[in-house]
Amino acid sequence: MAALIESEARPMAPFDLAVISQQLAEDVSRLVPDSEGYTVADYFKLDGPYLVEYVDACLQVLPSPDSLHQAIIRVLCVLLEKWLERDPDARVVDSPFKVYLDDRRYREPDIAMMLGVHAHRRERKFWRGADLAVEVISETNRQQDVVTKMIDYAAAAIPEYWIVDPEAKAISAFVLVEGTYSQIESTEFVRSRVRPGFALNVAELFATAEKKA
Predict the structure, then answer these.
(1) Going by C-beta distance under 8 Å and a sequence separation of 6 or more, which residues neighbour residue 182?
(2) How confident is the model at residue 4 (pLDDT cuts 50, 70, 90)?
(3) Any idea where the domains of the chain sit in the sequence?
(4) Mean predicted confidence (pLDDT) in 30-44
(5) How far is residue 197 from each of residues 95, 189, 193, 194, measured CA to CA in Å?
(6) Which of 161, 174, 172, 166 has the alpha carbon at shortest distance from 206?
(7) How far apart, in whole angstroms, are the C-alpha atoms of residue 95 and residue 107?
(8) Residue 173's beta-bridge partner residues?
(9) Of 41, 61, 99, 212, which is the most buried if we count CB atoms within 10 A?
(10) Residue 51 confidence (pLDDT)
(11) Using one digit for the tens of pLDDT, what is the confidence trace for 45-94?
């Protein structure tokens, strides 16, 4: 059966919430799900400012990010792009952008990175997997980021997964080992295994983001 699953959202300005909610409602109302639910084609018809993922024929509406959440994403994207300058075919995208995991799952990570060697897996409207997926935890959606998406990204063989926790001011980095994520040991720095050479100062990331939030 078709389902539209809504995660509890953070508070938003009434006008913004009304506009986004109205557009989402209008866009979903144009879809005609079959007996098994929504199709991938239905999902790709949704291209508004809202965050929606596709899971087992259902449309899952994600929480709206707050200003700190958005600032963390912006700062981290800049740092990742700087890190990838020696790989001109590499790319970094932030949400909303679709990442194919399997035929029944499309996620929209807060940040996805793809190395140039895998450029053939990138399409205009979505990527087939990623080399790094990053999720910034929303307190209303912590279980999704810490448990559910970790399982999904591992199953899709995404080599590295970072979970950014604004509340704890911490980043947990995981590398895929024999189909399961193993946490990368880190202190004040996070170092990538996908492309060695990137060292992220966690305290500086949060300090910079807080100034921009």
Answers:
(1) 174, 175, 176
(2) very low
(3) 3-61, 67-212
(4) 90
(5) 25, 12, 9, 9
(6) 166
(7) 10
(8) 162
(9) 99
(10) 87
(11) 988 878 899 999 999 988 888 999 999 999 999 999 999 999 999 999 99
Tell me the C-alpha distance between 24 and 101, whole Å.
23
CATH superfamily, region 67-212: tt1808, chain A (3.90.1570.10)
pTM beyond 0.85, yes or no: yes
Query: In this predicted structure, what is the pLDDT of residue 19?
Result: 58
The answer to whether 152 touches 105, Cβ cutoff 8 Å, is yes
Asked whether residue 12 carries a pLDDT value surpassing 50, the answer given is no
CA dihedral sign, ordered 196, 146, 99, 159: positive
**Residue recorded with tokens 């991938």:** 40
48: which 2 tokens? 């508004």
In 69-85, which positions are buried (b, 16+ CB within 10 angstroms) versus exposed (e)? bbbbbebbbebbeebbe
Amino acid 186: pLDDT? 73
